[in-house]
Amino acid sequence: MGEVLGVGCTHYPSLLRGPKAYTSTVRMLMGNPMVSDKMRDPANWPDEARDQWERQDEEALAHEQRMIEAFRALRQRIDDFKPDAIVIWGDDQYENFHEDLVPPIVVHCDDEFVDVQPMLHAPDNPWGEPVDKRFSWKGNHELGKHIATQLIERDFPVAYSYRPSHAPHGMAHAFANTLVYLDWDRKGFPYPVVPISLNALGTNFEVAQSGFGHLKPELAGVDLSDRRSPPGPSQRSLYKLGKLVREIVEERDERVVLMTSSSWSHSFLTQKNEWLFPDIATDRLHFEQLARGEQHLWADIPNAQIEAAGGHEWRMWTALAGATEGQTPTVVDYLEAWVFNSNKCFCYFDP
């Protein structure tokens, strides 16, 4: 019987670009008619948001350091576990999923991921690495096919792929960023990975595309109801996915990490906060449930409720919740980020 280590982290893109990028979304929206005149004035923000905005340089540096140390702690736990493979749930934001095919779930069965370029838009990255630096990581073709086969045989139909379809650099950012961060100290990352992409944009897919399309200034006041897409996977299906994948890998004689990588609610997806702040209250509730080992409660949340809370990407964590049913995590860190776009959680579940 195999062993499983559960891991939760973020793939926060701004960590690639340095602390000055952390407020880029808010700064972009300050002159955007999608935001009301009232909310463009920080004097009208919640106290915590205003305080973080006024001390953004100091706060961003502290935010960065906490993320770095959290990734180092997770990498150490993974190294100690000595896995044979890592299965990662992450979202696809108009990378491999385009209008020609928008699957709910895809198991990537690639042999390897080569010439991936996560730094292309990160000239000020923390390592001072060139923007055209190329990374290559091992895939696990056999394990990916086995997971896809067994999911289908167990009445959970999924899509699968053997090579990237549209992603220009071979791997969606949810996975590439995660592997870059887990190798923060550049000692190499030897573990084969099986990415499982999920459609996180859901009903926003048609208009949001790469994530920010719904915030184009010319869309202010425009009724977009006729451009709503079918939703992403339901919470119950993601929870079941996590449970099934754990069953499948535990039947093999291997040590496998089951990992989810996504931040929690995102400001640019939280309409009720005029796209400026994440849903702090909802994320706090979910964190309290997680810390108590009650992540099973997430399976019953309607998709509409999640999207109203800007939790489109957070739903990735429901797959991890299914895979860790009945377990209580070791929390490495939990970071709230009023003006840094998204809240973040780092944790692991021992075998």
Question: Which helices and strands appear, and what pairs or packs with what?
Answer:
Layout lengths: L2 E7 L4 H4 L6 H6 L17 H8 L1 H26 L3 E7 L13 E4 L3 E5 L18 E4 L2 H13 L5 E3 L11 H10 L10 E6 L6 H4 L26 H16 L4 E7 L18 H12 L11 H6 L7 H8 L6 E6 L8 E6 L2
Parallel strand pairs: 1-8, 2-7, 2-8, 3-6
Antiparallel strand pairs: 1-10, 3-7, 4-5, 9-10
How far apart the termini lie comes to 12 Å
How do the helices and strands follow one another from N- to C-terminus? EHHHHEEEEHEHEHHEHHHEE
Please compute the radius of gyration using only Cα atoms: 19 Å
CATH class descriptor name? Alpha Beta
- What's the helical proportion of residues? 25-40%
Question: Largest beta sheet, briefly?
Answer: 8 strands, mixed
Q: What's the number of extended β-strand segments?
A: 10
Query: Helical element count?
Result: 11
CATH superfamily: LigB-like
Which shape, going by the Cα principal axes? Answer: globular
What's the average pLDDT? 95
CATH topology: Protocatechuate 4,5-dioxygenase, Chain B
Percent strand: 15-25%
How many domains, in number, for the residues?
1
Strand order across the largest sheet: 6-3-7-2-8-1-10-9
Poorly predicted spans: none
Give the helix/strand class.
Answer: alpha/beta
Indicate the CATH architecture: 3-Layer(aba) Sandwich
Features:
two-stranded antiparallel ribbon, 16% strand, Protocatechuate 4,5-dioxygenase, Chain B, eight-stranded mixed sheet, alpha/beta, 351 residues, 10 strands
